What we know:
The structure holds two protein chains of two kinds. By secondary structure, chain A is of the alpha+beta class. Among the domains of chain A are: 55-223, Immunoglobulin-like, CATH 2.60.40; 547-560 and 573-679, Sandwich (Immunoglobulin-like). In chain A, helix 4 packs parallel to helix 5 (368-377), helix 8 packs across helix 9 (479-492) and helix 8 runs antiparallel to helix 11 (531-540). In chain A, 49% of the residues are buried. By secondary structure, chain B is mostly helical. Chain B has one domain. Chain B is 76% helix and 0% strand. Chain B has ten helices and no strands. Chain B has helices at 2-9, 11-40, 52-62, 64-96, 101-110, 112-136, 142-169, 179-189, 192-218, 226-247. In chain B, helix 3 crosses helix 4 (64-96) and helix 4 crosses helix 6 (112-136). At the A-B interface, strand 28, helix 7, strand 39 and helix 12 of A face helix 2, helix 3, helix 4, helix 9 and helix 10 of B. Zinc ion is lined by residues 374, 378, 397, 400 of chain A.
Amino acid sequence: MQRARLGLCSGVVALALGACDGAAQPRSVGLNVDEPADPLRPVAQRGAVPESARVTDYAIDAKLDEETYRIDGLERITFRNRSDAAVDHLALHLYMNAFSAGDTAWMKEGRGSHRAMGQGQQTPWGRVEVTSIGVVDGPGGLTLQPGEDPTVATVPLPTPLAPGERIEVDIGFTTYLPEVFARTGYKDDFVLAGQWFPKLAVLEPDGTWNNHVFTFHSEFFADFGNYRVILDVPKGWLVGATGVRTADEEDGGRRRVTYEAAMVHDFAWTASPAFVEHVAQYEGIRIRQLHTAETWQQAPVHLQAQEEALDSMQARFGPYPWSTITIVHPPAAAGGAGGMEYPTFFTSSPLFEIPLAAQDVVSVRLDGRFTTVHEFGHQYFQGLLASNEYEAPWLDEGLNTFANTMVLDDSPQGDWAIKVMGHTLDSGDLLRLDMQRLQGTAVVDQRADQFAETEGLYGRTVYRKTAATLRSLRNLVGHERFDAAMRTYAQRYRFAHPSPDDFIDTLTEALQDDASTPGVVALDDAVALDVRDWLHQGLRTPRSVAFAVRWVENRRGQSQGGWHRDEGGTWSRTDAGDPGVEGVVVLERSGGFVTPVQYAIAFEDGETLEGWWDGVRTTDTLLFPGRRILSVRIDPNRHLELEAKRVDNHRFALGEAREVTTEGDIADLAEAAVLAALLGVAP
Amino acid sequence: MKVLRTAWNTRWVYLAALVLTLAWGLAASTIAGWMTEFILGPFGGEADVEHALARLAEVVTHNPELGVGIGAGAVLTAAAAWLGWTLLGGAVFFAARGDALAQSARGAVQSAGPLAVQGIVHAVLTGLALLLVSVVFGPLPGVFRLLGLLVTTAVAVLARDLVRAQICLHGLDKPYHPRATVQGFVVAVKRPREIAITAGLWVLKMGLALVLVPLAARALGPSEASGWLRLMAGLGLAISFARLAWLTHWVPVELEPPASAPDDGAQTAET
Ligand SMILES: [Zn+2]
């Protein structure tokens, strides 16, 4: 894979080249990459985009008042009825209203704070007001009918819109940005506008609107379309937005910037006079970072993470179709805007910098660079495979988390998240620890608002249990086979709205050995895995994976000696020779999740036998006449990352000398801690 | 040479301290090993070196009492050690001037009260000084604050050594009066050479103390760390003893009444 790595240019170099405006830090760092003309990459690179996926276009003209953080806008929505039925009304998202009062659906769940950040003091509330609405060239104004929550509304149409017809609607609106604490809003001279304009919900094929209120954990479900947005901001402010910049004019004290985006389902933008811009290029994709003075030196690290994410995700899930990526790094005071995804545009978080001297002791990768990997990942799992975040949040957060671990795995540094003195915790290790916290209480495939927002249950279930489930299945059926199935899913549902059943059906079909045994993967001659049932257990039940080696011993072999009757009915006695030994193993499935699992049996003669157990019964006994067993291991290749407790997966045969690795480690650590305490306070 | 001889004088006290230290460490190691064995029962032998951290994390998160036990052990050790070292610290001074082991022990026991009280005063004063420095240096860049804290710590270490040496070797008229420690700080501040040497040796010892747990972490898996741990603990103790022994060469200093232009040159202890 070829890629341009020319963007790593230090600020010092940029200063020397005069690429700054004379301020303390440069205004622009990195390459001078032209803005692409087309918001989509060339067909040869991105593949075809189905015309049928284009449903809703927006043309918006919006003006920011930087004193009051108010946006006055006028939008024209072009909507195509691609359903099979006539529609008599439109359904609107007015998602900024989530922040309009303490009793909105969002606030009821969030209680005025998000990721430990509370509402601002100055402007705690945000809202959007529709000031006018009417059909273009149509009869007079339309009426907005409020929905169950201020974040949704409906607009009855004067005449039903027949299948295949299109309609243009003009909507005037005013958006009042809150002080940012949950992704969207302002702080000082920084503005991040997400969920800021009235937007159409999704019309299902049967002609009903899927118009969910904005809840704490879900904000995306919308149709694809083209956007043309003019943003009027104060002169001297730098703007970043979804899509490509196609015009940029200054007029008096104002600046009017035009952005155009193609085949996206949302549009977000940011503006600030304090931005430092860092631009790079990757296979014709313009990667633009907007930093402030606090973080601009971190740009190359984020760029590297971004490039690794592109390397991995394009190879696994198909080409990234758009020609730009904009990464916004909000200033610390606006930290609430960090870590959020919008089409071709996302916000990251600052790097967690460990002092150089301490890096040999501890290093972490789960910092801002991981946020970049994660939020970029949403360009696929949400931006491109636009599932319903309200009804099935795991289809974007969970699949994305899975993909993020693959990015780490594919990167030159390999999959490690935390290093302590040369020992690493990888993604699988961390997921396993999460599964322990879940204790088998969580069902993945639920609506976003069905999760109790306590003890991080949502994140652990939707993000991590999904990832652990997929990674476990991938380990069981084989990486190549699973990766091919995921590729099939990603290709099939580009620019579409996949449902949980679509995902399960696609994997079931793509993983099976052959069509004669649908959905079945043979693991060896006797043991097979039923993909649909397996995914059902992992995603739709709270069953947990738990195995143990229940018993291992070497008992006296079965004697052949004694009195036996021959065919003629005559009794005769044979002498008992040495009965020898018989190895006995009892495998136990203590968890409710029924899955095949591997075992490995180490014999005294040096051989290690690996095999599969179907795990259907709760215990099974394996006998090995004539062979003495040293130890037995269940899941020796660490396939089942869903299994929280592995310590009981290994057992020495009764009476066999046991190594004492874990005891030894803990004893050493205790001795070190005590000696350190003694020496620390020594005279 | 004289310093070396003085240090050599402390060998029996050092050996006693070393035996106590290693025995304590061994006890902790044995108890932790038993606890783990008891908790894991027939399991836990998996030598999965590549996932050593995960294996430990799993055992400790499933059995938090193990982590709590080890943490509590270390804290209790530190508390008990503070008392123990207060006594032993005294014994080093007696031994350094040539007292026999039994005599040194007797001397340390006799000085225990003042040593403990001045030790507490010293801990409080040091805490206050560090707080003051971090507040005063707060607005400055981090490196200055770090430097300020380091210098303060170095002065505090020397002050404590001075007061202890004075109590053991020369006695104080009012051995329980906090002024002695205050005066220790005042005298210490004026002795940059001694500060440098004391601080150097102290930092070396602390460095060894700090490296022990990472070292044990490094050796997770089948490799054994305990030999190295014990060696480094012994080395750290030796450095501590050398520091105290060296100090006996330039006490007494006038800790009471308030110092009047203390002598700049090193003074020889009366032996
Ligand atoms: Zn996410």
